[in-house]
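Reading is simple: the token line describes the chain's fold. The lines below illustrate.

. . .
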Amino acid sequence: MQALRYFTRAVLTVVFVASVGQTGWSQEWARKMFAVHQHEFGTVARGSKAEFCFELTNPYLEDVRIANVRSSCGCTSVYIKDDKRQLKTYERGAIVARVNTGSYLGRYGATITVTFDRPYFAEVQLQVSSYIRSDVVFEPGSVQFGTVQQGQPAEQKVTVTCYSSSNWRIRELRSANPHLTAEAVELARGPGQVRYQLTVKLSPHAPAGYLNDHLMVCTSEGQAVQIPLAVEGLVSSGLSLSPSTLFLGMVQPGQTVTKQLVIKGTKPFRILAIKCDDPSFRFDTTSAGTPKLLHIIPVTFVAGGQTGKVHKTIRIETDFGDAKPELSAYAVVAQPQ
């Protein structure tokens, strides 16, 4: 019951109902950390990369630990992203489900069980389903741009082969990302086999950050049949922040806490300004005007009198081209217990 009282007193984003039984309550707090609980991959090609991240966020004051993840079917592999098992307050993690398109064919579904052992035991079940085609093959199984410097274009090629019909055609290539374009060129057509080469291009105007999208291959089988091709990469601005998210901890009203923000570049640069719309945040930029490869900036937070969660965005202006990195800062202001 000590854990229950602690959670009730804490500043939470989830409200618990005292009348709920111990088992149901323990499952519910864990389940509410996930944004979604099921995913339909749809039709995927044999050998293609088909992954989905079930993201979760810890909104509690106590640390949450993922003890284990498992899949009910060999058709789907599952793992903890970056092996990040322990999540502190407001930290995010993800459970990655990967369809084994090279070993399984046809319609499959799997139940993923995520087990937590801290702050106490709970299990959450996630659902995935897919239809793996045996007659359509992507080589390689995804578009991998790797690391691309912002402002530079990038291009990758993928071969698509259909083994079921000589009349099969690629009608259209679609992407929700305006910085991705693609074209399909027919390479060969013969009895029961058609081969295309896809050229996928990344625009030099793509913003900095991770690229995790899909290119939809629309075929002559109709618009209902769209085969996704994973597109991944990292557009680098040349600047990196550590930590990527600044958590200042749990503080009392009027308390001051200081953390170090490290900003690193691939060439010497100056910090022109660091801004936040909350005057509770202060930045020591004494040496920021000197060009350096690495800047260490003390970030100080002075808690106000109002209790609750604090979530602000810190924006950084530099003379490193057009790079304007930003990061989220979190704190919890609570009265002493």
Observations:
- The first strand starts at residue 38 and ends at 46.
